[in-house]
Specification:
Strand content: 25-35%
Oligomer: single chain
Number of helices: 3
Largest sheet: 6 strands, antiparallel
Strand order of the largest sheet: 5-4-7-2-10-13
Order of helices and strands: EHHEEEEEEHEEEEEEEEEE
Radius of gyration: 21 Å
Structural class: mainly beta
């Protein structure tokens, strides 16, 4: 079990734009009266997801490669632009101050001899997002961070470990914000090849002090996409389109559209329609 600082080659790293805004919880009076205090616009309160990146070389024939990784926040990790896992919402939801899980992935087939790119995107998730009944943020802390070791075992028997440190670079991209309760906003005009480009990101990372004793290997099942559900019915209501999937689900929408540059689409979700058959 890697629950000591000495167990890791890597260190907890973060970024200057990885601090989450701490928001006060609503009072019970506000919640039940429906009269809430004024709040800043969402884009002033929430911040972009955090990109972490390392460009490295595999200099000889590789026998095996394993990535051990965790975060303060939820992460998606890529090697040379390909997902290291099909699981989503990694690393799951636990009592992070006491039990924060790490995951181990066999990434041998994702690596190539020569230049390679490890890229990780970290969002607020349950660690720092707005998940409480009363709307507060930063449940377990306000600093998103990453910890990882990439162990490379070569055919000649030598082992090399690349750990997260200040040599990683950081930046941001298309996710203007991403929150489990509030939702996410993407600006696809900011999409780029950061997961495969050999160029560093524009900012430097730095090491932070964070607890290693709470770390534990993955326990229990992870979350995976199980099936794709086609829309059962689509109709227009004013300027909106209502799309009915025919059942209550936990899922995300896959949308293909031909749009003008800069055009905005808003996707809203509900479990039922009102008495007039309209979205509310």
């Amino acid at each position: 079990m890697k629950n000591q600082k000495s167990s890791w080659a890597g260190r907890w790293i973060s970024s200057h734009h990885a601090t989450v805004s701490e928001e006060p919880e609503f009072t019970l009076e506000e919640m039940f009266s429906g009269v809430l205090r004024p709040q800043k616009p969402v884009e002033d309160r929430l911040h972009p997801t955090v990109y972490f990146k390392k460009v490295f070389q595999v200099r000889k024939a590789l026998e095996k490669a394993e990535l051990t990784i965790t975060s303060q926040g939820i992460y998606q990790a890529y090697i040379n632009g390909k997902n290291v896992t099909q699981a989503i919402f990694t690393l799951g939801y636990t009592e992070y101050n006491d039990h924060l899980m790490y995951q181990i992935y066999d990434v041998t087939k994702l690596l190539q001899e020569g230049e390679n790119v490890l890229a990780v995107e970290v969002a607020d998730g349950w660690y720092a997002g707005r998940i409480s009944v009363q709307g507060g943020s930063a449940q377990f802390g306000n600093q998103l961070a990453l910890l990882a070791d990439l162990d490379l075992t070569y055919e000649d028997g030598t082992v090399q470990t690349l750990g997260t440190d200040a040599s990683f670079t950081t930046g941001k991209g298309k996710h203007v914000y991403a929150d489990i309760q509030i939702g996410e906003k993407q600006d696809l005009r900011l999409e780029d090849d950061w997961k495969t480009s050999l160029e560093d990101l524009p900012e430097k990372t730095f090491e932070i002090e964070a607890d290693y004793a709470r770390l534990a290997p993955q326990e229990g099942p992870m979350v995976y996409r199980k099936e794709s559900l086609p829309a059962q019915k689509i109709w227009q209501a004013g300027q909106d389109l209502i799309v009915d999937f025919g059942q209550v689900i936990a899922g995300r929408v896959r949308l293909t559209a031909d749009l003008a540059f800069g055009q905005e689409i808003i996707l809203e979700h509900a479990e039922a329609l009102n008495e007039a058959g309209l979205f509310f």
